[in-house]
Amino acid sequence: MRKTALIIPAIVVVLVVAVSSIFIVDEREKALVLQFGQIVRVKEDPGLSFKIPLIQEVVKYDDRILSRDLDPIEVTPADDRRLVVDAFARYRIVDVEQFRRAVGAGGLPAASQRLDSILRAGTREVLGSVSSNDILSVDRAALMLRIRNSAIAQASALGLQVLDVRLKRTDLPEANLNATYERMKAEREREAADEIARGREAAQRIEAQADRTVIELVSDAERESQIVQGEADALRNEIFAEAFGADPEFFEFYRSMTAYQRALQAGNTTMVLSPDNEFFNYLKSDQGSAATR
Fold first, then answer.
1. Which has the closest alpha carbon to 59: 112, 92, 105?
2. Mean pLDDT by 10-residue block, N- to C-terminus, for the chain (293 residues)?
3. I need a surface site. Which of 56, 126, 155, 226 has the fewest CB within 10 A?
4. Domain coordinates of the chain in residue numbers?
5. Model pTM greater than 0.70?
């Protein structure tokens, strides 16, 4: 019984020691075997492995591609127009020994903070060398490549490989939005005022041209009417002259009748003349007496 009581605890201890000496590395991980904080072995291949219990420990790191979102930062491009940039990076741990020496026990959180500083500095440096129009344009892949390349060397010192950097959003700071809106509004109002002024100028020019055309047409019409009237008067006078030459007595009669008609209007004409007035010469003549019978 005493031997059995001693064997069972010994077996338990052996099992515990055996289990604690075994560790499994997943295909998505890399592992470091540490002894008193020093790296003694790197386990990168997936599978079963062993360590010395109680003396050695295993630290595992993610071997997959990781993503890191940067907090929005303000940058000042070459044209001094401040922008708020929101970016993210994709990276992976390629050298776990270098990674452990660089960040120590801080692990991935410590590395992420240092990577953030590297990316922010690279973003400010690259975007500060170009204009805001280049940053806001659709074709800005070259800028993102420059940011990635500027971060590669510093990230490699951490055992990291920066695979990609992307600019998700580039906007004006909130404080500048109203000023930008007012500036755009003033610009549009100025353009509208210019268009209105040009429209009024064009309208005045068209109206002046129309007035000139009207005056020219009226003048031409009056000139032509005067010519026609002059020709008609000349023709009338010619006809009168021919008629007078053909029958002077009839012409005298016609002229006297026309004068009487114009002078003696019904209802509104009063004339006080002597019977011997020359106006009645034709009425007192033999032709006039015959006409009044």
1. 105
2. 61 60 84 85 83 83 89 84 86 91 88 92 88 78 89 91 88 65 80 88 88 87 87 81 71 72 66 65 55 46
3. 226
4. 2-62, 66-172, 261-293
5. no
